[in-house]
């Protein structure tokens, strides 16, 4: 009984901090992502203009360099954009935003490659515009993650501690699979089953199970959408009556 009361007290303290503290507020997350997005995009501007400054691995920057040398931006655009899309889904589901995949690769390489592939190079070659563009993209990414999370996992007011944080990194990526499955199950049983099946298939293929869990959750989630808390209560009341 004491542990339950203590837990309730801690939850009330957290909610109070969320209402008064910048670092606990949901609205602060898009702002932080915007600042980091601006830095990543500006780093790409430095690389395109001066040949140094890109925030990414050498192999990823080489894809952008190949496009700048006339070999096409397809590889950089596809690689960066796919990473960005996957990390947004991952961040929405488990509350962890991998900065390397989402901002450094997606915003720093993928989106600039997409823009330059269609001849739009002003946001990359102009430093103030690069800051504004990267900041706007980061703000949009942060807003999307918070919005998706609000109406899915957090709609039941239960996240099992998987609140928004950043900096998971590749070394921690191997531990995200179970968290994804757990969060998917919290969202709804069918989505959790899909995540489990996807993780098992990827495990059998000797691939990272996090990707399989996300894809499995998406597939079954398309057929069994997550019901909002208010709708679930209405259905429960109807069944009881």
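Q: What amino acid sequence fits the structure above?
A:
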């Amino acid at each position: 009984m004491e542990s339950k009361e203590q837990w309730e007290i801690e939850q009330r303290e957290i909610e109070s901090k969320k209402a008064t503290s910048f670092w606990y507020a949901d609205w602060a997350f898009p702002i932080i992502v915007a600042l980091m997005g601006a830095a990543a995009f500006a780093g790409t501007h430095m690389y395109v203009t001066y040949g140094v400054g890109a925030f990414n691995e050498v192999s990823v920057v080489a894809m952008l360099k190949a496009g700048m040398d006339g070999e096409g931006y397809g590889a950089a655009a596809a690689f960066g954009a796919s990473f960005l899309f996957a990390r947004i889904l991952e961040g929405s589901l488990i509350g962890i935003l991998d900065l390397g995949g989402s901002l450094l690769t997606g915003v720093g390489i993928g989106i600039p490659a997409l823009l330059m592939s269609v001849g739009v190079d002003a946001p990359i070659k102009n430093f103030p515009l690069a800051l504004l563009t990267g900041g706007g993209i980061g703000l949009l990414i942060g807003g999307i993650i918070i919005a998706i999370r609000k109406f899915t996992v957090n709609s039941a007011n239960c996240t099992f501690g998987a609140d928004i944080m950043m900096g998971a990194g590749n070394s921690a990526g191997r531990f995200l699979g179970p968290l994804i499955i757990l969060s998917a199950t919290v969202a709804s049983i069918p989505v959790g089953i899909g995540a489990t099946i996807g993780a098992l298939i990827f495990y059998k293929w000797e691939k990272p199970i996090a990707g399989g869990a996300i894809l499995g959750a998406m597939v079954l989630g398309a057929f069994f959408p997550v019901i909002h808390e208010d709708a679930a209560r209405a259905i429960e009341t109807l069944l009881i009556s």
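Q: And what stands out in the fold?
A: The chain is about 75% helix and 0% strand.
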